[in-house]
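Box 3.1 A note on notation
Throughout this textbook, protein chains are presented in two layers. The first layer is the amino acid sequence; the second is a C-alpha cell string describing backbone geometry. Keep the layers aligned when reading.
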Amino acid sequence: MSDSTSRSHAVGDSIVPQKLQEKLPEGVEKAVPNAIHDTGPSNAKSHATGDSAVPEPMQKAVPKGAEEALPDKVHPTN
C-alpha cells in the first residue's frame, strides 16, 4: 500500500507548495526538516546503549547507521 495521499501531513508552517505537499508520500514529507516543512515531532531516537560523548540532540538527528559507525568508546551502540 502506498503512503501517498491527496493531503498534506504538515502541522505547522511549510515553504513546500501545497500541491506538492498533497502529492508527496508521507515518508518524504517527514524526511524534510521541520524548519522547511513542519510535520510535528519526529520519532527520532538515540541508539546508544551506554554513555555517549555525542550530544543527545545530535544522536537523535542522525541515522542509525551513522551512530553505529562511531567507535563504541565514543558512542556505544551494541
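DSSP finds four helices and no strands in the chain. The CA atoms of residues 45 and 60 lie 5 Å apart.
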